[in-house]
Design a protein that fits this description.
The chain has about 300 residues and is mainly beta. About 10% of the residues lie in helices and about 40% in strands. The structure holds calcium ion and zinc ion.
């Protein structure tokens, strides 16, 4: 299996993983920005699912969502923003997906656990003769929170398990920094996943990610945002989906009033007329939603991403 090659990149192997985001953890690397890194990642169950006979019974719950890192960025302080451009995502074939009773949106209708492995070397995932397109994305990406310890299977204001399909090749994610060095980690790659991660998992894979990281001191954010194609989205996680939706809008309105010169009501009208509320995932301990605004709006507000 050939990985991503870039002689200028700092390589971090998947021997360096964390299972929670917190400030006390030993960094696997100290890096001065701007920098390009390649992070090797394990799958979301640390390789415990090896065949279609394996179910959640084989999964060691102490090693859920291994996330490669944490990376300490020199001179990065609380209040800064990390700009992380996703240059490449390499997913290792095959990947697996599962359904599990009581998990996912249809958990009450699932009578038995089923695990499926799919090869996608030919660029498609074939489910009973129906071909599904690959859509590589990163499930977990985040930084240490100001206080406490957040397991890597939980999303939040620090990022983490936000399972957002917009976090893909070519996108840029903006993460608020809460502790010295930021302590970035990422993992949980999916070769494909629909918005919602509705049936419980994506096509779970190990792999590699190449990122380009910079410090941004001009942006004011306190939750993750992502720029992808021609939209810019807030990424909000709360216990219930309707609360995540509201938070996604509150944070978007907040962003354009603080970073552009516009008042609350006009920001609300603009969002009401052209921003899309979207669901990221409904299967994790907190649910994640986003509000996506077209970047042509931001350009008119002199917000340069
Ligand atoms: Ca995930
Ligand atoms: Zn996953």
């Amino acid at each position: 299996m050939t990985g991503i090659s870039n002689n200028h990149a700092i390589y971090v192997s998947s021997d360096n993983v964390i299972y929670s985001f917190e400030k006390g953890l030993n960094p696997s690397k100290h890096v001065t920005l701007p920098a390009t890194l390649i992070l090797e990642t394990k799958d979301c169950f640390s390789g415990d699912i090896k065949t279609e006979k394996d179910t959640m019974a084989e999964v060691d719950y102490s090693t859920l969502n291994p996330s490669t890192g944490p990376i300490y960025f020199n001179n990065v302080k609380p209040g800064d923003v990390l700009e992380v451009k996703i240059k490449k995502i390499k997913c290792n074939s095959p990947g697996f997906t599962m359904c599990v009773p009581k998990e996912g949106l249809l958990g009450d209708m699932i009578k038995k656990p089923i695990t499926k492995f799919y090869n996608f070397d030919n660029e498609k995932i074939e489910i009973d003769n129906t071909k599904v397109d690959l859509k590589p994305m990163i499930g977990v990406i985040g930084v240490a929170p100001a206080e406490g310890s957040i397991p890597t299977n939980t999303p939040g204001d620090h990022g983490g398990n936000i399972d957002t399909t917009l976090i893909k090749e070519g996108s840029t994610i903006f993460l608020p920094v809460f502790v010295d060095g930021g302590l970035l980690a990422l993992g949980d790659l999916h070769a494909a996943m629909g918005d919602g991660e509705s049936f419980f998992t994506g096509l779970e894979v190990s792999g590699e990610v190449e990122i380009e990281v910079k410090i941004r001191r001009d942006l004011k954010i306190d939750i993750p945002f992502v720029k992808s194609d021609d939209i810019f989205a807030s990424i909000a996680s709360e216990k219930e989906v309707h609360k995540s939706l509201k938070k996604a809008m509150v944070k978007m309105v907040d962003f354009i009033t603080k970073n552009g010169d516009i008042d609350f009501y006009d920001a609300g009208f603009i969002c009401g007329l052209c921003a899309d509320l979207q669901i990221s995932q409904v299967v994790d301990p907190l649910k994640t939603a986003r509000m996506a605004i077209p970047t042509y709006i931001l350009r008119q507000l002199n917000i340069n991403l």
